[in-house]
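The data are quoted verbatim here:
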Amino acid sequence: MLAPEGEEALFEVGDRVRLTKEMRNDGTFPFAKTGEILVPEGSEGYVKKMGYFLQTIRVYEIDFIELGWVFGCREQELELVEKAF
């Protein structure tokens, strides 16, 4: 899918990224209580792929290797740690 006009993706597959705010369960993750912290702020992971929600919201699939989970994150929730080669 193409990005909305004039908007470049900030991250690419393979980039190492850091979560800028904690991720809490909004009720859609079945293995934790609603409101429970799923991924703490500062956790690092790698971009596995990128897609869109409702064709306008860019979402990155992040593999938080140390936690053993993969979650979707929006651009404003992430910062670049290391660019993929």
